[in-house]
């Protein structure tokens, strides 16, 4: 590493550490502090609330890593230009584009780290947060009912529906379950009613307690003991993930492989919700686009920091908030457009990245000729 690269990275890296910590605190305070303190005030076990906070933290960090790059480069290049080090480098014949190379390298490193963190740690932690939150709500006896309905198919033919009054992710069970089987004529042929169905580790459904199956043609019914399944009726060929994916909005619980599998399953479902599929595809491409934000923000912040060298840290922070707000506002607008089918999901994810890189190239070129 040349002395120039070392000078820039030595300036940016420590500021990135303090910047992503600052954004993490702000996001935590803005989104989750009220929820956590509210749970404690309602009598939730303190240990469970702490556990929930720890599970929430990785998701916040994954968003703070790219944001921290913007403030870090704003402050670092503000300091370098304020001490005339940028002027000295330029006088020595070093172009601004060359000075930006270590920024791009460090930004790419942060992007790769964010991607890996988002693929491995965040899904595990987000799933844990859902289960702990469900446990806390259960202990407070305020568990929210989450109903679900899912069709199931056999050889691409609709053979029935599974409906549940509540889905409990913590125990992997459905409550108040009604399974409707269709006959060859497409009309309801029989109905299975069970208090609970559990999705086992063997990826199979089992009845908890007694259940009853009604034959709608003969108008007869049979009582089933725990563990038994109606004779001649296949178990629904859907997983618990298939069912909750219709209602689950937190896409942090999936890594790219899981999302790709879910997208394939949803596309194979003829009754799939197009807006929900677009949202899932948008989330899939965001697994790449959001980490790339670190590279984009780094290249934007550096030339802006030179321009703002007379301003203080507060001004740099305000400018970074404005840019981040604009960046994610554009992302949200495009997300809405992709749900409406106006913009492909991949374009909605990557257009902000392209706009950010183009803006950074323009700023660097402009600063270079001044």
User: What is the string of helix and strand elements?
Assistant: HHHHHEEEEEEHHHHH
> In total, how many beta strands?
6
In terms of DSSP E residues, the strand content is 15-25%
Q: Whole-Å distance between the termini?
A: 28 Å
Radius of gyration: 26 Å
Category by helix and strand content = alpha+beta
| Shape estimate | elongated
Helix content: 55-70%
Strand order, main sheet: write it out.
1-2-3-4-5-6
Number of helices: 10
Q: What composes the largest sheet?
A: 6 strands, antiparallel
Q: pLDDT below 50 for ≥5 consecutive residues: which ranges? A: none
Mean pLDDT across all residues, rounded?
Answer: 83
Question: Any chance you could write out the topology, listing elements then pairs?
Answer:
Elements: H1 3-31, H2 33-41, H3 46-82, H4 85-91, H5 96-139, E1 148-154, E2 157-168, E3 173-182, E4 188-199, E5 205-215, E6 220-224, H6 240-244, H7 256-268, H8 274-307, H9 313-339, H10 345-369
Antiparallel strand pairs: 1-2, 2-3, 3-4, 4-5, 5-6
Helix pairs in contact: 1-3, 1-5, 3-5, 3-8, 3-9, 5-8, 7-8, 8-9, 8-10, 9-10
């Amino acid at each position: 590493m040349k002395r120039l690269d070392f000078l820039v990275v030595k300036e940016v890296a420590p500021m990135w550490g303090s910047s992503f910590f600052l954004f993490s605190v702000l996001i935590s305070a803005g989104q989750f502090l009220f929820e956590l303190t509210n749970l404690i005030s309602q009598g939730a076990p303190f240990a469970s609330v702490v556990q929930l906070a720890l599970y929430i933290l990785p998701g916040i960090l994954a968003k703070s890593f790219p944001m921290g790059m913007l403030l870090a480069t704003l402050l670092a290049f503000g300091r370098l230009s304020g001490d005339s080090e940028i002027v000295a480098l330029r006088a020595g014949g070093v172009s601004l584009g060359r000075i930006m190379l270590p920024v791009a390298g460090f930004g790419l490193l942060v992007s790769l780290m964010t991607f890996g963190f988002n693929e491995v740690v965040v899904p595990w932690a987000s799933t844990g947060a859902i289960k702990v939150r469900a446990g806390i709500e259960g202990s407070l006896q305020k568990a929210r009912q989450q109903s679900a309905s899912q069709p199931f198919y056999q050889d691409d033919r609709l053979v029935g529906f599974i409906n549940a009054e509540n889905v409990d992710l913590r125990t992997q069970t459905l409550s108040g379950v009604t399974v409707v089987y269709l006959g060859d004529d497409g009309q309801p042929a029989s109905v299975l009613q069970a208090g609970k169905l559990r999705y086992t580790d063997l990826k199979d459904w089992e009845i908890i307690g007694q259940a009853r199956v009604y034959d709608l043609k003969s108008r007869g019914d049979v009582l089933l003991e725990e563990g038994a399944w109606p004779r001649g009726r296949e178990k629904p060929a859907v997983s618990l993930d298939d069912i909750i994916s219709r209602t689950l909005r937190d896409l942090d619980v999936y890594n790219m492989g899981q999302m790709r599998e879910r997208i394939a399953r949803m596309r194979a479902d003829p009754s799939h919700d197009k807006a929900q599929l677009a949202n899932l595809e948008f989330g899939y491409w965001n697994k790449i686009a959001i980490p790339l934000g670190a590279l984009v923000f780094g290249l934007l912040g550096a030339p802006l920091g030179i321009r703002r060298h007379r301003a203080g840290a507060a001004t740099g922070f305000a400018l970074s908030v404005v840019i981040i707000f604009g960046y994610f506002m554009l992302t949200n607008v495009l997300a809405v457009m992709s749900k409406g089918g106006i913009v492909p999901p991949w374009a909605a994810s990557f257009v902000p990245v392209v706009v950010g890189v183009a803006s950074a190239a323009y700023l660097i070129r402009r600063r270079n000729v001044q």
